[in-house]
Amino acid sequence: MSQSAPYPDPAMGAPDDAPTGAGAPSAGLTTADGVPLKKSLRRAVRRSKLKALLLVSPLLAFLVIAFVMPIFDMLWRSVDNPEVSTTLSRTVTALEGWDGQSIPDEPVFAALAADLREGQADRSLGLLASRLNYEKSGMRSAVMGSARRIARVEPPYKAALIDINDAWGELDTWQVIQRESSPYTLSYYLAALDRKYSPSGEIVQVPEYMQVYVNLFWRTLWMSAVITLTTLVLGYPIAFLLANLPLRHSNLLMILVLLPFWTSLLVRTTTWIAILQSQGVLNDMMVALGVIADDARWQMMHNKIGTIIAMTHILLPFMILPLYSVMKTIPPSYMHAARSLGGRPFLSFRRVYFPLTIPGMAAGSILVFILAIGYYITPALVGGQSGIFITNYIAYHMQTSLNWGLAAAIASILLFVVIALYMIFNRLVGVDKVKLG
Amino acid sequence: MAVPSYATRGERIWHYVFLVLCALIFLFLIGPLIVIIPLSFNAEPYFTFTPAMLHLDPAGYSLRWYQDFFSSSDWLNAIKNSFIVGISATILATVLGTVAALGLSSHHMPARGAIMTLLISPMIVPLIISAAAMFFFFSKINLAQTYAGVILAHTVLGIPFVVITVTATLSSFDTSLIRAAHSLGANPTRTFFKVVLPLVTPGVVSGALFAFITSFDEVVVVLFIAGPEQRTMPIQMWSGIREQISPTILAVATMLVILSILLLTTLELLRRRNERMRGISPG
Questions:
Q1: Are the C-beta atoms of residues A88 and B152 closer than 8 Å to each other?
Q2: CA B54, B55, B61 angle in degrees (round to 5)?
Q3: pLDDT band for position B165 (50/70/90)?
Q4: What is the pLDDT of residues A216-231, one digit of tens each?
């Protein structure tokens, strides 16, 4: 069988039999070389399925290695907790029967001394010290200080180690070690939500002066909502104009929408810095026009306003394009009909046109919102202190504090939010419908 | 969108108010890109118009920031890196993406929706998350701080654009043209080169352009993955804006605006050519 075409041999069936007709006696049909048609068709379909899969598989394999695995690795890292269980393995074993009510006895301290000696020898204590320090401040110096002097420590270890650092004589030190001895932890997620374990193991809020992330999550969501709203308000009239002009004119104006879309993000951010800063173009113009005094220049940069203006500009095309493609499908005769039936212009618009554009508004809004909550560059450059997003803290923990577990936990929470929004978007619009310019 | 003859005076006024509103929004969209162009010719190291510039005094203008750019080894090196990374990532993404799009547009593709979602996901996942994830993973397999690592990361980011544009082109591809070519006596090779390729090329090229511009403009991933040797243009701009802000940035920005105008024109021409070949557009 060289051809996969599922046509029956005319000689085998009546000529007027439709090949796949419901009433046709298809069991009796065969191809030219005598294979039953059903089987031949199934084989042909299977072959083209296989061919399609083969074509997609190189890309799939590439993406799994270069994208999916890194994402899962990050999710894994947000709960991964190897430091205590590997570096303090003897101590953890010795602590197994501990009741958690009083300072442990000599065997546990002896195990700790052995672990510290080994850790000092293979230099693996740095990670442990930072890890314990996230849970209880002062633990870094307790671990590192004790390790430096461990070579000269003689039994009994309990007295000697408490003598080196008081932390070993505190109950919550041991509670932390016991709690973090499991290979997985939720501590990073708790920290990302401004919570922590109390010494007794309950989840409590951190003190008010240390609460950062929940507020920042809310601010990110709130500012993204504001940006979505401003893009909607500015994008709607433009989309309406483009959809209702003759094609020749609208194509020309469309370029004005697409040009910013195609221009480098950094360029657009830079221009807003040039325009909005206190010695910038807009303030200079206002001073020259006498609208504001020279010493009362508007502060529009390095705060929320700067972030909102710049991001509205950057994301506006993402609102206009889906709105436009929906409005383009609304026949103008609908509005004419509404008018001819006696509707006033505003009423006709509100009752007829506007409801038809809701899918476009929903698609554009979710798209802009998803893009906004994940923005890093623009808030980092123009946001100052009050205009930064949660993404800036991911970067901070990745690059400056080097608390990668916490960075992974914040990123994972953000990822869950984005995936949830994306599923709504997909339900409403469908990825296949995404158009690029 | 003319005002209909039966419009009342109120409607006419509203119509013109609406047009003015739209003009203002267009100004908001385009104005900032226009403003920086004259600013980049500033003779003084300021980000604003000097009195000399406002009086159109030639002494107020100069090319010193462009000279600065072209005589700086940092910037030139960054451009070189951007092109190395951008072109390699574009080729990889275009080849992988086009082949996959051929499979995806087959009617018999199993699990099409799920696979499409996966292929598009690098576009949806916030860049900072991809960057963090790739940084963790690439450090483990010794790809961090290498050209290969940056190129692979940018390939991932470019793939959704290639897949979307090429599948869109293929979905409107009329397969009866292939049969027509066969029936007119062309063999499969000739059909592919004379019929299929000319119709599909515009989609592939615009996908490739999208992938290139994505890489060329990408900061976050490079910031995390690249070492000092792989500094690209956007990174150079980023640190320029953060640290020593000088109008050289504006000169670069102006050149990039011109580049995007060129790209946009190319895309528009491709789109027209495509429509003309399909006989859709009246021109």
A1: no
A2: 70
A3: confident
A4: 999 999 999 999 999 9
Contacts of A415 in chain B (CB under 8 A): 125-126, 129
Residue A196 above 70 pLDDT?
A: yes
Mean pLDDT, residues B110-134: 89
Using a CB-CB cut-off of 8 Å, the residues of chain B touching A363 are: none
Least confident of A90-94, A237-241, B245-249: B245-249
- Find the helix or strand (DSSP H, E) in which A204 lies: strand A203-205
Q: Do A275 and B32 touch (CB under 8 A)?
A: yes
User: Residue A187's closest CA among A399, A403, A416?
Assistant: A403
Please state, in angstroms and rounded to a whole number, the distance separating the CA atoms of residues B273 and B267. Answer: 10
Contact A360, A323 (CB under 8 A): yes
Mean pLDDT across chain A? 84
Model confidence pLDDT, tens digit, residues A404-424: 899 999 999 999 999 998 888
**Cβ–Cβ of A271/B130 closer than 8 Å?**
no
Distance from CA of A263 to the nearest CA of B (A): 5
- Side chain identity, residue B219: V
Interface contact B33, partner A, CB < 8 A: yes
Question: What angle is formed at CA B234 by the lines to CA B222 and CA A373, rounded to 5 degrees?
Answer: 70
The CA-based dihedral angle spanning residues A146, A141, A79, A66, taken in that order and rounded to the nearest 10 degrees? -100
Domain-wise residue ranges, chain A: 28-63, 82-183, 213-433
Which residue did the predictor score with more confidence, A19 or B87?
A: B87
Q: Would you tell me which residues 94-153 of chain B have a C-beta closer than 8 angstroms to some C-beta of chain A? A: 96-97, 99-100, 102-104, 106-110, 115-122, 124-130, 132-138, 140, 152-153
Assess contact for A242 and B194: CB atoms under 8 A: no
With CA atoms as reference, report the closest residue to B214 among B85, B128, B32: B85
Measured between CB atoms, does B16 come within 8 Å of chain A? Answer: no
Helix, strand, or coil (residue B228): helix
Residue of A nearest to B100 (CA): A56
Cβ atoms of residues A433 and A218 within 8 Å: no
Nearest chain A CA: its distance from B50 CA (Å): 10
CB-CB: which of A55, A263, A434 is closest to B103?
Answer: A55
Tell me which chain B residues have a C-beta less than 8 angstroms from the C-beta of A422.
124
- What percentage of chain B reaches a pLDDT higher than 90? 29
Tell me which of B3, B11, B16, B29 to substitute to probe the interface with A (most A C-beta atoms closer than 10 Å): B29
- Mean pLDDT value of segment B217-230: 89
Contact A274 B161 (CB under 8 A): no
Which of A59, A272, A285 would best serve as a mutation to test chain B binding (most B beta carbons within 10 A)? A59
CATH hierarchy code of domain A213-433: 1.10.3720.10
CA dihedral B48, B52, B57, B60 (to 10 degrees): -60
**Residue pLDDT, tens place only, B182-221:** 899 988 888 888 888 888 888 888 889 889 988 998 999 9
Nearest to B134 among A70, A415, A426 (CB): A70
CB pair distance less than 8 Å for A49 and B108? yes
Q: What is the mean pLDDT of residues A364-368?
A: 90
- Coil, strand, or helix at residue B226? coil
Token pair 């419908």 in the structure block, residue: A433
Q: Give CATH superfamily name and number for B74-245.
A: MetI-like (1.10.3720.10)
Question: What is the per-residue pLDDT for B154?
Answer: 95
Using a CB-CB cut-off of 8 Å, the residues of chain B touching A77 are 136
Q: Which residue of B has its CA nearest to A76?
A: B133
